[in-house]
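example protein:
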Amino acid sequence: MNEATDIATVDEYCARYGITREAAAQERYRGMGPRFFKRGRRVYYRWADIFAWEAAMVQDRTGEKVTA
């Protein structure tokens, strides 16, 4: 990846998970989604943070609590 593709927009993040922009906003508010940053009013994600968040969500059983 080059520097230009290391950054995901909210729309790209939402498309990856099939969620709405509002659901992504709630994740950010509750601190339940991947790390993000803002430039002005716009929100961005680093793909590395998204992949790290995904890795932290992996479970072996359905009864496990996810800490991420």
Notes: The two ends are 25 Å apart (CA to CA). The CA atoms of residues 27 and 37 lie 13 Å apart.
